[in-house]
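To illustrate the input format used throughout this study, we show a single complete record. The first block contains the structure-token representation of the backbone; no residue identities are included at this stage. The design step must infer an amino acid for every position from geometry alone.
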């Protein structure tokens, strides 16, 4: 029997409906949440991601602006723009689209963003607050995975979650979120990586298996325990002669094979990707609330 497909787009739509309601309540108080995205260069994938973020902002009533810069933009110029945005009272969220050109230090860029406007959730202050369990702007993809699990009826509470991939963008922050006390947490987490011996031994013990390793179809059916929930964070472009542009997107999981063993599984595309964008919208509203003193006055189902 094939696994139930976890529809990330449908769950993201529900979250965006909540965001739209929050935006309307803020509007009644004279607050208009605004997201500023900085795009450097003309990478097609980055342009698509930024376009999707703009569409989500429009859908939820969030005002958005894209600052497009050339591939040759130097680091000091970018930091100057970020400094100006930090000072703008109408700019509640700042996001610099990655990857960045080689002349720009990504860490310096992240650290230059005001933590209260860091809607990507990667400023060291926000990461530190997350690790301590304090209220903060959370990393969008890990938070999206957590919400996907809860809202699809697969609470991590008491479960063994195995994460394949230890990046600072997904694996490590997700491990922290899933082990926190309360909603969406209380799991026992094993974090596997490139130096883990016999990864299959660990993945076969998982109630919830999450892959964020960035290798197409790395997770085979033989690595999935029967009845497990499989969350595929990977987005990999592979050749496909039948596709119009000669390529298609696949995840880290061999979807067709794994779905015959799993109880539930996310597709690629249409799984975690839409959740990342939805949580970015949620963070933008959260940031607007924090900066305008409305955080305690407005209901917010996700942050309660």
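Output of the design step:
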């Amino acid at each position: 029997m094939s696994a139930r497909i976890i529809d990330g787009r449908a769950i993201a739509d529900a979250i965006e409906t909540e965001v739209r309601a929050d935006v309307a309540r803020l509007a009644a108080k004279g607050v208009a949440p605004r997201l500023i995205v900085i795009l450097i260069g003309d990478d097609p994938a980055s342009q698509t991601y930024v376009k999707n973020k703009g569409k989500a902002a429009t859908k939820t009533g969030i005002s958005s602006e894209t600052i497009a810069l050339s591939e040759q933009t130097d680091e000091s110029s970018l930091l100057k723009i970020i400094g100006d945005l930090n000072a703008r009272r109408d700019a509640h969220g700042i996001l610099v689209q990655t990857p960045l050109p080689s002349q720009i230090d990504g860490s310096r860029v992240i650290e230059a963003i005001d933590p209260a406007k860091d809607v990507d959730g990667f400023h060291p202050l926000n990461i530190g607050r997350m690790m301590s369990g304090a209220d903060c702007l959370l990393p969008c993809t890990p938070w999206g995975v957590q919400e996907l699990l809860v809202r699809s009826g697969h609470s991590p509470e008491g479960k063994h979650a195995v994460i394949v991939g230890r990046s600072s963008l997904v694996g490590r922050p997700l491990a922290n979120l899933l082990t926190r006390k309360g909603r969406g947490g209380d799991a026992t987490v094993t974090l596997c990586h490139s130096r883990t011996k016999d990864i299959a031994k660990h993945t076969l013990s998982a109630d919830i298996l999450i892959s964020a390793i960035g290798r197409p179809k790395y997770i085979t059916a033989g690595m999935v325990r029967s009845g497990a929930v499989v969350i595929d964070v990977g987005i990999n472009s592979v050749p496909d002669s039948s596709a119009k542009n000669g390529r298609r997107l696949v995840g880290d999981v061999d979807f067709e094979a794994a779905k015959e063993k799993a109880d539930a599984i996310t597709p690629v595309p249409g799984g975690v990707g839409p959740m990342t964008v939805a949580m970015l919208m949620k963070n933008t509203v959260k940031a607007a609330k924090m900066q305008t003193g409305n955080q305690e006055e407005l209901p917010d189902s996700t942050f309660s």
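Structural context for interpreting the output: The chain has two domains: 29-135, 140-274. The chain has a mean pLDDT of 94.
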